[in-house]
Design brief:
By secondary structure, this protein is of the alpha/beta class. Helices cover 32% and strands 21% of the residues. Helix 1 runs parallel beside helix 4 and helix 5 runs parallel beside helix 8.
């Protein structure tokens, strides 16, 4: 697990020093793992959203969770894996001056870039904290809303992340997360075992039923999949790990890779008398 975390840190530290355009030519921004083609596999267009800041957009997301997150003025929002601050600044436009946005990322270079972006914008109610989302540097019952964009698939212990989301949310609070999941057969072993495809947001993805099952097991309610978008990996990327027959077999296997945006709520009160 620690090896995977170190791999992700190293990859995203490198990405922090690259341009959006450079990252757009790669798998989930992990340039060097997925070829040099000028395609964007996962990301969506933020440019028309209030609060959008081009300097903060590293082209690393697989959805737009803020569009479904029901963020209100005055809310406290936590963004998991906040990168250079893209989703945080969009969320800040929603919470207004009376709200608060906290971004958490475990890559020092991303935190530095995000803080620099916030300083340029003059925001006093957006802060960025260096930390691991498996053990968030946030007090219990802090957030009205938790968001995340194409990050939890990169974390080895996904159950721990969702338990932490539960902890930091207020009773009655909710999360809205965009992430990558699988449907159907497992990925071919050559892709599963490729470190670069893990950092590229593919081989660390769970099957969708397992992913949703963790959310239910954690205690969340009103679970909804609000958006489901297929992701097609170009042959030139698959060809780095599979021969031509392997590519044909993969395409005919029924394995599907999807970006989903999922929503769920923390109960207003605990049924067991615990501290919610």
């Amino acid at each position: 697990m620690e090896d995977k975390k170190k791999l992700v840190q190293e990859k995203y530290a490198n990405i922090a020093g690259q341009s959006k355009e450079f990252n757009a030519g790669s798998c989930c921004g992990a340039t060097g793992c997925c070829g040099d083609g000028s395609y964007t596999i996962f990301s969506e267009d933020y440019s028309n959203l209030d609060g959008y800041n081009p300097d903060a957009d590293m082209n690393l997301g697989c959805g737009i969770p803020t569009s479904f997150a029901n963020i209100k003025p005055g809310d406290t929002v936590i963004d998991l894996g906040s990168g250079a601050g893209n989703d945080c600044f969009v969320a800040r436009a929603m919470v207004g001056d009376s709200g608060q946005v906290i971004g958490i990322d475990f890559t020092k270079e991303m935190i530095e870039k995000a803080i620099d972006n916030a300083d340029k914008l003059g925001f006093k109610n957006v802060q960025f904290r260096l930390g691991d989302i498996e053990n968030m540097p946030v007090t219990t019952n802090k957030a009205d809303v938790v968001i995340s964009n194409c990050v939890i698939n990169l974390v080895p212990d996904k159950e721990k992340v969702f338990s932490e989301i539960y902890r930091v949310l207020k009773g009655g609070g909710h999360f809205c997360i965009s992430d990558v999941v699988l449907v159907g057969e497992d990925l071919p072993p050559a892709i599963q075992e490729a470190a670069e495809m893990y950092a590229g947001c593919v081989s660390g993805a769970l099957h969708m039923d397992d992913y949703l099952g963790i959310i239910v097991k954690t205690g969340f309610e009103s679970l909804k999949v609000l958006k489901k978008k297929p992701i097609v990996i170009p042959d030139e990327i698959l060809g780095m790990y599979l021969d031509s027959d392997g590519i044909k077999d993969f395409k005919s296997s029924g394995t599907g890779i999807f970006s989903i945006t999922v929503y769920a709520e923390k109960p207003k009160t605990c049924c067991c008398g615990c501290d919610c």
